[in-house]
Design a protein that fits this description.
Blueprint (H helix, E strand, L loop, with lengths): L15 H9 L5 E3 H10 L9 H11 L6 E3 H13 L1
Antiparallel strand pairs: 1-2
Length: 85
């Protein structure tokens, strides 16, 4: 059993939780929209099939109503939406 709840795929990379923590900031339990957009740009998720505007809209969709930050489970949901595009 892996110590990480989201182990990295064999062949390298980092876990989803590690990527979340890197962009959210050390010790933070949530991520703001600016950090989410930066993660999408830096990881080359934004391109022809997924725009920065769509990233902002997706962030708003997965965030709890009235909140400006997302948790790790919400971040994972956002990644699932991106993967489906």
């Amino acid at each position: 059993r892996s110590a990480s709840p989201n182990p990295a795929p064999s062949g390298g990379g980092v876990s989803v939780a590690a990527a979340f923590q890197t962009f959210a900031g050390a010790g933070k339990a949530d991520m703001d929209g600016k950090s989410f957009a930066k993660l999408c740009r830096d990881c080359k998720l934004i391109g022809a099939g997924f725009t920065s505007t769509e990233a902002d809209l997706l962030f708003a969709r997965v965030a709890t109503k009235g909140q400006r930050r997302i948790t790790l489970p919400q971040f994972e949901r956002a990644l699932e939406h991106i993967a489906q595009k």
